[in-house]
Structure formats: structure tokens, C-alpha cells
Amino acid sequence: MSIIRDESPEFDFSVPVAVIGAGACGLTAALAARDAGVDVLVLERDKRLWGSTSMSLGAVCGVNSAEQAAHGITDSVDLFVADVMAKTEGRADPALARLIGEHSGSTLDWLNAQHQVPLLLDFKWTGLGHSRPRLHIPPGRNGEELLALLANACGRAGAEIVMEARVSALYADANDRVLGLQLQRPDGSVERLGCEALVLATCGFGGNHAMVAEHIPEMATARYFGHEGNQGDGIRWGMALGAAVADMTAYQGLGTLADPQQIIVPHPLMIEGGFLVNSRGERFTHELANISGMCVPVLEQPGGIAWVVFDGRRNQECLAHSVEQRQLSEVGAIRTAASWAELERLCQLPEGSLAKENAAIDAARERNTDDRFGRSFAGLAPLEAPYCAIRVTGALFHTQGGLQIDSAARVLRPDGRPLPNLYAGGGAARSISGPAVTGYLPAVGLAMAITLGHIAGRSAAQQTQMVMA
Length: 469
Hints:
alpha/beta; FAD/NAD(P)-binding domain; Flavocytochrome C3, Chain A, domain 1; nine-stranded mixed beta sheet; six-stranded mixed beta sheet; 22% strand; elongated
């Protein structure tokens, strides 16, 4: 990848708005551009739509959405910003948090009303840093469905998606205005596409081992459970054009990745009363204190291994709504036993260890006090036989640092001036998670993707209309 400096390059064809990356951010940007009456082309390097969006739960947090109103949920931008600042210990960008709070709910409403992309309010992930129910999930409760819904909407709107179009270089003039792109096609041919505005929607850099080692050294040797195409291309193109970056040390981690099956264990198992133990059969953390940051204490355990412990009733409830839980069941990842002693043998844990930890939880619940980690199990039914466990490890899911942007999703230079016609969203842009793994709020990743995609696509379209006027 490179920047080709050329004041008057020749292009094979041109389009007003080009978008690099066909994930949630890129497809939403394309819909916004088309709604503004502007032609747009989305360029995707892979053979099929996949990426970080498909690998996620498909959940998007939104503030003041129609779904919240329909369920009688009273929310506000101020509450959302306060939640973000509390979770990040005051280290997130409050202006960016407010931007997401102000536009996330209306973006979800727009996708539903205008483009038949329904995202329904979910109550299984209430809390965990959000003071109001804000998670909106597609009916099938997975990211692959969300991506399909967005792609179908693009087809109806006339936003063309070109697969296997790997962007290898950007053309720019001396003022850092992007003039077009160089594409490499599967047959080895090269095409040159001109554009008036460019949206970077390439996600983060989790698949770039050198960048992870540089910016997130504590995860340099950790397992990466994300799309290998996340090489940080958008971030690097922006930097090559003189853009500023921030919070490059931030990331979303996974503390419950089934090992060795590499399927995400649904967190509602623990929200509803399950717990984690290490290979000694000992609990080692407050399981709900930090969903993203749970990868750190899990990886600190012997062998970087832990067990999610729950029961048959919770398993059945989760099977009813979770694709991942059904996958875990199908591949035999769930170990089930009629007693604690039998489950300890199945998991090769010390005799009496699980029974001891469960008894301590039951005792705290009966006393109506927090346990020794500060977690409350009040209101949650005790675990009952049959008992279940899944072996897990920690992993890096996706990065949260990226290009600095303004309220129009324009990419900014270090002095705060915007680059002439460059926009960014999703994992290519700085998020609102602050500088560390502990600042990630559930569903913020897709909220950044969809909300900033909407803003970036609309802003890019407006810029091209001004140029053509």
C-alpha cells in the first residue's frame, strides 16, 4: 500500500464517493450517500462479505431509539456520555462520545424505517456499564445476519459493492486531497478509480502483528480472534496523508473464547449466574466487572486457560437464543455432569474445587452480600444439576484506536485541520473506549461503525455535491 503523488492522474473510471471496506461501517456509509442522491462504489478485498461485523454478536448500542421508546426506556445523551466517561475513567474523548450519543439512536431508526434493517432492543445484556438498555440486535442475533441485511439494503438502494477489489494505493495531490485509488484484481490486472471523496471503513489493525506488537505489546503473543484482513490499512493511509491518530493502545478483548473450538461463549451464561475458574478450580476475578478486559486476568491464569461454569437450565435458555451456544453444543464443547464431583473429573479440576466455589457464592447470596470479588448474585437462582462447563482462553478481538475525526467524520491532521476529502469510521477511526482494554462498553464497536458510517457517507456526499455545483 502506498500514496502516489500525482496532480493529474488518468483513471479508468470515476465515481463521486468511494468507500474502502464492506463491513457495517462501509455499507452504512454507502446507504447514506445513496440517500443523498450520490453514486457510490464500495470496494471489498475479499471474495465474500465477512469481516469483523460477521464475527460479532451483531449488537449495536443506540441512545434514544424508537425501540427504546417502544419499551418505555427513558435514556439521554448525557447519561450515555456519563457512562462512557465512567467506564474509561475519564479518558475517552467526550465530544466524540456525545456525537455517538446524539446520532446512534436516529441512525438505527433510519436503517429500520428507510432500509428494512431491523435492530431490536435486547435485555439480556442490560448493564455491564450501560445505565439503560441500549443494545439493539438483529432478529437472528448474529453479525452475519446484520451484514446480510445491510448488503441487501445496498442492493435495493443502488449502492454497488465490488468484491475482490484490493486497494493497493491512493492517488493524492500536493495538498493531500485524495484523487483516486489503484485496485488490484484477482487476475493480476490493475484498475484506477477516480473519486471526489473517500471513506475509510477498513476496520482496525488486529490482524497486523507488527502493529499490535508496537501499540498493544501485552497482546503481542495472544491469540487473535478477528478477521485477518484487519491490517490497519485505513489507519496507515490516513497517517501517510498526514492524519493524527489516538488511543492506539485500546482494544476489545475476549475472555471467553472456547478452546480449542474458537467459538465465543455467550456472556449471558455468566450474567445469569455462571462463574469462571482456573485450572486449579479457583475463581480469580469478578466475571462481570469488565467484559472486554476479562482477557487479561484469563491469560494470567496457568496456561492462559479458564472454565466457564453454569448449569443445565441456563444452557437450555442460551441454546434457545444464541447461535454460538448451539455451535458449542454441536461440536461437543459443553461438558455436562450430574454432580460437581463428576464435572471436576471431566474438566480435570481438583476434587471439591467447584463445589467449594459454588458454596461460597450460595453463602454470599443467602447473606445478601457481595462475594469476595465484589460481585452480587442477588436475585439469581442458584446453579442446579446438571452442571456444565466450557474451557476458554483469552484473545484479541479488534482494536479501538485509530484516526482522529471531527463531527462530520472528516479525518483530522495533528493541528486539528481536516484533510480535504477523507472520511473515516468504524475501526479505522478512534473509538470512545479510551486508551485501554478496560474502557470498552458492550456494542460500542458496531455503534461506532454504523453511526460514523452514516455520518461519513452523508458528509462525503454533501462534499461531492458542493464540488459539482
